[in-house]
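REQUEST
  id: r-88c1
  op: predict_structure
  target: DUF3303 domain-containing protein
  payload:
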Amino acid sequence: MTFLITWQLHQGKLHPTLAHFSQLTEQQDQEMMGDDIKMIGRWHDLVSGTGIAICESDNIEAVTAYALRWNNEMDITLQVVVDDEQARALGNRLLV
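RESPONSE
  id: r-88c1
  status: 200
  body:
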């Protein structure tokens, strides 16, 4: 499954959270995610304290646990999304 994660940092949390994140090595970040999550990419709007991430996993509990590690610093939404190919296949099933 592919997940779209969006976040909005809590008021006053931008600088401390950015300082914490910037000190994480890629290995530490992967350890926080665990073996069941493949991070496709993250994009940050540092001025507004918002961002998005796309990850893949077959384990919703692992993705939820990872989001909860950051939930104290920000409001997070977690959505399952499909790509064009999957959307077309689902759409074609509706035509039958």
